[in-house]
Amino acid sequence: MYKQEQDVVEIISKEQKNFLQYIRRRIKNISDMDAEDIVADVVFNVYNKVDIQYHIENILAYMYRSIKNKMIDYLRQPSRAISLYQSDEVSGRSIVEFIVDRSADIETKMLQEELRNQLYGALMKLDRKQREVWIATEIEGYTYKELAAKWGEPIGTLLSRKSRATKILRKLLKNNV
Fold first, then answer.
1. Which CATH number characterizes residue 125's domain?
2. Range of the domain at 108
3. Which parts of the sequence belong to the RNA polymerase sigma factor 70 region 4 type domain (predicted)?
């Protein structure tokens, strides 16, 4: 690892908690996940541009300014509500229709209904952004690349949200079974 990379890694490791506190002090009711996503985006961008460090007098101030800009972007994002009964733009079917198999027998239909209700309940317990990315990728069939372009979010952020959502859903559904 080059000296300049080591310097950036050292700054990041020392200041990560401070970055998160900085965000939480300025944005009330921000989830830990969203604060971590903001820090991760800034760290990713700075680390990939590690050579700029020698063109900047104070890299730490630069990172705080980058975080502030990401927070402004976060606050400007419109909230996207997702309903399980909302029609999909591509197929015209609701999310519920993707889950239910109309050709199944009564017992199977009842089990599917119970599973759908459990899934719906578990999805409603997720953070809004986690729920959105999970539904979009697992049920609606969007790729991360499509979602990144559609929502203006980095692919890495979407991947981490989906991973967190899947872990939470597994835990919630396991407890219901």
1. 1.10.10.10
2. 95-176
3. 117-167
Give the contacts of 121 (CB within 8 A, at least 6 positions apart).
172, 176
- Please tell me whether the overall predicted TM-score, pTM, comes out greater than 0.90 for this model: no
One-letter amino acid of 91: S
Q: Are residues 112 and 166 in the same domain?
A: yes
**pLDDT score at 164:** 92
Q: How far is CA 169 from CA 156, 160, 175, in A?
A: 20, 14, 10
Predicted confidence at residue 1, as pLDDT, reads 45
Give the pLDDT of residue 121: 86
Q: From residue 168, give the alpha-carbon distance in Å to each of 14, 77, 87, 99.
A: 29, 25, 25, 19
Span of 5-19, 70-84, 90-104, 122-136 with lowest mean pLDDT: 90-104
Looking at the structure, tell me whether residues 111 and 148 fall in a common domain: yes
Assess whether 107 and 164 both reside in one domain: yes
Q: Which of 45, 76, 107 is the last residue of a domain?
A: 76
Place of tokens 């979010």: 153
Three-state secondary-structure class, residue 49: coil
Instruction: Report the candidate in 137, 139, 106, 102 with the shortest Cα–Cα distance to residue 120.
Output: 139
Check: CB of residue 82 under 8 Å from CB of residue 132.
yes
Domain annotation covers residue 146: yes
The verdict on residue 88 lying in a domain is no
pLDDT at site 75 = 86
